[in-house]
Write a structure and sequence with these properties.
This protein is of the alpha+beta class and 367 residues long. 33% of the residues lie in helices and 18% in strands. The chain has an eight-stranded mixed beta sheet, sandwiched between helices. Strands 1-8-9-7 form a four-stranded antiparallel beta sheet.
């Protein structure tokens, strides 16, 4: 009996070790997205500049000891820790009012962005428009991806992808190893996956959150760059001009492949906060316009025409009152509250049992 069990375990181990190289095997082996997934994928590096921008430490930082939510009082630091937070920053007027790390993480720790990368991809589309590499958001996607000409895909525009109103079928479920999400996250040929997509609805009629739309935007951007890689453009347009403190990486589908623009920028909390600062200042960075003010305002102003929804615009989540967020699946947030001049970054192993949007709003009103 013991010999049979041993042989069975050896066979299972061999199957797992071989299968980890394919999509289904990797899904089975790694099981679900993790903030350390930057270690398992190939990547390109966006290098930081030698000149760094640093937020100042607030002399009179008001770090709350207690947090009241729905009438119940919590110890603030314990609440963050118990709800799987690894980094939590509150910045007002370029001063770090609060900076907390947990579970062995610190200011140098890399965390995967997940869908916060969607908002960064949108910024780069705005930069490409400024640089006239892309002429208009009204351009048909087939201008850049002619492989999609068939089956009505010629109706899909860049704006449809930005608004997630493309009408192209995509299953966002992360628990199905045979679904679109697993294919995009663990698969090794994103271009092939993009070329297989089909219309489900008429473009510009229905909002449907779709990582597939953002990945298609990434291919549009790569084609518009004409030989330059998306990560190189990230370095040129954001990582160096914003004085990031550390290099970042962008995960690829395979070695020398395509950036996973729907998910996978890997960086540190303070550097993610600088993305929020850029938008807080309407695309201006210490006197230099990095991306146009018009693009920032377009991206953060609701538009319900042509299938749009009031809570999502150009790859950013919008809130009533003018606040907006870049959001990732495990409770990753770059939260921007323009009226209060506050940026909040929350990174975590998962969301825990917290409503981070409500917490960020509550904190933004305290400062």
């Amino acid at each position: 009996m013991y010999k049979r069990v041993a042989r069975y375990l050896i066979v299972i181990t061999l199957i797992a070790s071989v299968s980890v190289s394919c999509k289904i095997g990797r899904f089975a082996y790694y099981n679900f997205a993790n903030i350390t997934d930057y270690k398992i994928f190939p990547y390109r590096t966006a290098h930081a500049d030698s000149v760094k921008f640093t937020f100042t430490d607030a002399k009179n930082a008001k770090v709350p000891k207690k947090l009241t939510l729905k009438g119940k009082e919590y110890n603030f630091e314990n609440y963050l820790k118990e709800n799987k937070t690894v980094a939590f920053l509150v910045i007002k007027n370029d001063s770090l009012m609060c900076e907390k790390y947990f579970s062995g993480y610190n200011e140098q720790s890399v965390v995967a962005s997940f869908s916060m990368a969607k908002s960064v991809t949108s910024i780069l589309i705005g930069c490409a428009l400024d640089d006239r590499l892309i002429q208009s958001v009204e351009e048909p996607v087939i201008n850049y991806i002619p492989e999609l000409k068939a089956d009505g895909m010629d109706q899909v525009t860049i704006k449809h992808l930005l608004q997630m109103t493309s009408g192209i079928a995509y299953n966002e479920s992360y628990v199905n190893p045979f679904g679109d999400a697993a294919n995009y996250y663990y698969g090794r040929n994103l271009k092939k996956a993009i070329f297989k997509r089909k219309l489900l609805h008429k473009p510009g009629t229905v909002f449907s959150y779709s990582s597939g739309d953002t990945q298609m935007l990434g291919l549009v951007l790569e084609r518009a760059l004409k030989g330059k890689k998306v990560t190189e453009y990230l370095e040129e347009k954001l990582w160096k001009p914003l004085g990031m403190e550390y290099d970042a990486t962008w995960s690829l589908d395979r070695k020398d492949g395509l950036e996973k623009t729907f998910c996978c920028i890997n960086a540190r909390a303070r550097d993610f906060a600088k993305i929020g600062r850029l938008y807080l200042n309407k695309g201006n960075w210490n006197g230099k316009q990095i991306v146009s003010k018009e693009w920032v305002e377009l991206s953060t102003t609701p538009d319900t025409a042509n299938g749009g929804v009031p809570y999502y615009k150009y790859q950013w989540w919008l809130e009533p009152g003018g606040n907006y967020t870049a959001t990732g699946i495990l409770g990753q947030f770059i939260y921007v509250a323009p009226k209060n001049n506050v940026i909040i970054v929350r990174l975590g192993k998962d969301e825990g049992n917290a409503s981070w949007e409500s917490i960020c709003y509550t904190l933004s009103q305290m400062y």
